[in-house]
Design goal:
The protein is of the alpha/beta class. The chain has ten helices and eight strands.
C-alpha cells in the first residue's frame, strides 16, 4: 500500500477540536461528499472531480467542520466497488481539497485499508470506517498514523444488513461492541481524544432499533468520554417516521434529529445539507 502520512495527522490536539464539541457551542457538522453514482440520496452524488471539489469547498464555506469523502455506496444492497475504482474516485478529490484548504478537516469514508492509507497520504485527517475496524490492517493503519478515527457499528454487510436484523438489547450490544474496539485502540496507545463512535443508524437495524440507539446515546461515551457521531441524514428512518418515501423530501425530519443532537450534547452530525444545519444550530445556540 502506498501513501505517506502527513505529519499534521498526528497532532492530536488539532484532531480533538474537530471531534469534540465546545461546551458553549453546538454539534460539529460533517458534510457528506459522495463521489459515487449510486448513493441513496441522488442529489448528493458528485460524479466529476470538479463538481466534487466545488461541493466540498462550499461545505466548508457554509460552516462544516468536516468534509467526509466517500467512493463506495454502503446503502442496503449496494453494488460492490473495486478498490481501484474507489481509489480513482476519492484520492484526486482529497488531494484537491487539501491543496485548496490546508487547515480544513477531511475524513475518508471507507472500509478498505488500501483506500484509507492512500487517503491519509493524500491529506485526510480521519478514517470513517462503516465496518467498525473489522480488518486488522485498518487497525494497524490507525495506530501507525495516529489519525482520527470514527468507528461505526454495522450488523452484517451492506448486502445483508437489513435481512431481519436481530438484537436482544440493541443499544447495549452495539455500544459494547464499539467500546471494546475503541478501548483496544487506546490500550495499544491511540489517543482517546482522536476516537469517535457512531451507532450506525440504518446499518442492520429496524426503526425501533434506530430510535433506541438515539435515545440511549449516553452508553456510547463510556467512562473515557469518547466523541459521539450521528449519521441520520435523510435515511429511511426519517421516511418511516414522516411518511416521506423519497430521500429528497426528508430534510425537515433530518433537522428534527439535529435539534435533538444539539440538546443531547452529541459531538458531530453527518449530513447532506450543511447550510440548513448550520442555520438551525445558530438559532438554537442563540436561544439556549
Amino acid at each position: 500500500m502506498g501513501g505517506t502520512f502527513r505529519p499534521q495527522i498526528v497532532h492530536r490536539a488539532r484532531i480533538s477540536t474537530g471531534l469534540h464539541r465546545d461546551e458553549t457551542d453546538s454539534c460539529h457538522v460533517m458534510g457528506i461528499l459522495n463521489v459515487t453514482p449510486d448513493s441513496f440520496h441522488e442529489e448528493s452524488r458528485k460524479n466529476t472531480l470538479e463538481s466534487a471539489v466545488a461541493a466540498g469547498l462550499r461545505m466548508w464555506e457554509q460552516g462544516a467542520t468536516w468534509v467526509d469523502v466517500g467512493g463506495e455506496s454502503t446503502r442496503p444492497n449496494a453494488d460492490a466497488v473495486s478498490v481501484e475504482d474507489e481509489l480513482q474516485r476519492v484520492i484526486p478529490v482529497i488531494e484537491a481539497l487539501r491543496a485548496a484548504n490546508p487547515e480544513g478537516f477531511i475524513s475518508i469514508d471507507t472500509r478498505r485499508p488500501q483506500v484509507a492509507q492512500a487517503a491519509l497520504g493524500a491529506g485526510a485527517d480521519m478514517i470513517n470506517d462503516v465496518s467498525g475496524l473489522r480488518d486488522p490492517e485498518m487497525v494497524k493503519i490507525v495506530l501507525d498514523s495516529g489519525c482520527g478515527v470514527c468507528i461505526m457499528h454495522m450488523q452484517g454487510t451492506p448486502q445483508t444488513m437489513q435481512d431481519r436484523p436481530t438484537y436482544v438489547d440493541c443499544a447495549k450490544e452495539v455500544s459494547s461492541q464499539l467500546l471494546e474496539t475503541a478501548r483496544g485502540l487506546v490500550a495499544a496507545g491511540h489517543p482517546v481524544e482522536c476516537i469517535a463512535l457512531d451507532p450506525g443508524i440504518g446499518f442492520g437495524k429496524t426503526l425501533e432499533h434506530n430510535i433506541e440507539l438515539l435515545q440511549r446515546h449516553e452508553l456510547f461515551r463510556g467512562i473515557e468520554g469518547f466523541a459521539v457521531l450521528w449519521g441520520v441524514s435523510r435515511k429511511s428512518m426519517i421516511g418511516e417516521l414522516t411518511g416521506q418515501a423519497n430521500p429528497s423530501e426528508r430534510l425537515s425530519g433530518t433537522l428534527g434529529v439535529a435539534s435533538l443532537a444539539h440538546f443531547e450534547q452529541i459531538d458531530i452530525v453527518r449530513v447532506h445539507d450543511v447550510e440548513e444545519h448550520i442555520d438551525v444550530f445558530k438559532v438554537l445556540n442563540a436561544l439556549d
